[in-house]
């Protein structure tokens, strides 16, 4: 029988490997009255893990018409080089290891309620 310690009762910080993944939008769906869910998949999700309630992932949004060039990951951190750093947003992933798919929930702004579901979002890369 294992003995539990006080430390076992508290969340432990786990540092996941820093990787940049190019994923495919598999599905866009409404998730309740005020949210939209985007389901992502692809081979790049191999090795992805999200076990904590406070895990987060970043999405990078390059300028329209510009290609995304991932930065170099170095011992000192992330080096974006001379290029323009794209806008980023943090999201809590909803990861399903059985299907190897990740979902992200977005607040659906009130002004968008009259827009068709998925307006502005599309499947693909």
From TrEMBL:
<dbReference type="GO" id="GO:0052851">
    <property type="term" value="F:ferric-chelate reductase (NADPH) activity"/>
</dbReference>
<feature type="domain" description="Siderophore-interacting FAD-binding">
    <location>
        <begin position="24"/>
        <end position="96"/>
    </location>
</feature>
<dbReference type="InterPro" id="IPR039374">
    <property type="entry name" value="SIP_fam"/>
</dbReference>
<keyword id="KW-0560">Oxidoreductase</keyword>
<dbReference type="InterPro" id="IPR013113">
    <property type="entry name" value="SIP_FAD-bd"/>
</dbReference>
<protein>
    <submittedName>
        <fullName>Iron-chelator utilization protein</fullName>
        <ecNumber>1.16.1.9</ecNumber>
    </submittedName>
</protein>
<dbReference type="Pfam" id="PF08021">
    <property type="entry name" value="FAD_binding_9"/>
</dbReference>
């Amino acid at each position: 029988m294992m003995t539990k310690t006080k430390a076992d009762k508290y969340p432990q910080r786990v540092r996941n490997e820093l990787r940049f993944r190019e994923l495919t939008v598999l599905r866009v769906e409404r998730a309740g009255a005020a949210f939209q869910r985007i389901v992502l998949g692809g081979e790049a999700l191999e090795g992805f893990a999200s076990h904590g309630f406070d895990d987060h992932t970043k999405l990078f949004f390059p300028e329209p018409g510009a290609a995304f060039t991932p930065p170099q990951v170095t011992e000192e951190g992330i080096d974006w080089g001379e290029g323009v750093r794209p806008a980023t947003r943090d999201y809590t992933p909803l990861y399903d290891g059985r299907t190897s798919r990740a979902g992200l929930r977005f607040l659906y702004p009130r002004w968008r309620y009259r827009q068709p579901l998925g307006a502005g979002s599309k499947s693909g890369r």
